[in-house]
Amino acid sequence: MTWLSDTRNVYDALAVGYADETRDLLERLLHVRAGVVLFADLVRAIDGGPVADVGCGPGHTTALLRELGADASGIDLSPAMIEIARREHPGARFEVGSMTDLQLADGSLAGVLAWWSLIYIPDEAVPGVLGQFHRVLRPGGVLAVGFHVGDESKIETSGDGDQTVHAYVHYRQPSRVADWVREAGFTVEAQHLLSPDEPKPGAILFARRPAASPR
Q1: CA dihedral (178, 105, 141, 114) positive or negative
Q2: CA pair distance 99, 75, nearest whole angstrom
């Protein structure tokens, strides 16, 4: 899957600058921050438990989740991102890994946060990734997905000359993401549209793995 290596290479190349640019992002984008807070509240409402920030980048969102009382750890495809996350947030756990094959036990998590990380997954691989999220969540567990809204894919590049690397970023309609989430076995609970009047709107979707049926 060349798109996996392409994404890893881009974020290894961008890691230092990206970490600097996004360090105060959740203080500037308060509606996005509110989504993280709501996710933490939803996990707390089911008596807490481990939470994975999948595609955590430099770990800023993972750190906020921990400040909010969540037992949060981070997973990212980019070793350079994980190195920064471990250095800047030494109290949290961070591991290199892929959302296409999460090295986590079935039903081991109370929550999964995929904060603008599913945007690098091509359409044909999204169902498998959402299947991984469903597998690692316990019944009643919470899923939150943030993404760019649109109907196109764009190339993100870094470097120059022989060192240029690129990856596709996918923009999607909330209805399409919601359909994928339902097909993976989740119940969609809410969708929030962000900055609908701006050139680059976003969306946050909250869903839940249905609780086990009583026997």
Answers
A1: negative
A2: 8
Provide long-range contacts, Cβ within 8 A and 24+ apart, for 196-200: 200/148
pLDDT above 90 covers a percentage of the chain that reads: 77
Q: For residues 65 and 180, what is the distance between their CA atoms, to the nearest angstrom?
A: 26
pTM of the model: 0.92
Q: What are the tens digits of pLDDT across the range 99-140?
A: 999 999 999 999 999 999 999 999 999 999 999 999 999 999
pLDDT of residue 214: 43
3-state percent breakdown (helix, strand, coil) of the chain, nearest 5: 40, 30, 30
Q: What does the pLDDT look like over 51-83, one tens digit per residue?
A: 999 999 999 999 999 999 999 999 999 999 999
35-65 exposure pattern, b = at least 16 Cβ within 10 A, e = fewer: bbebbbebbbebeebbbbbbbbbbbbbbbbb
Is residue 129 classed as helix, strand or coil in its secondary structure? helix
For residue 156, pLDDT beyond 80: no
In whole angstroms, what is the distance from residue 68 CA to residue 170 CA?
Answer: 30
> Given phi > 0 = left and psi -120 to 50 = alpha, else beta, which region is 106?
beta
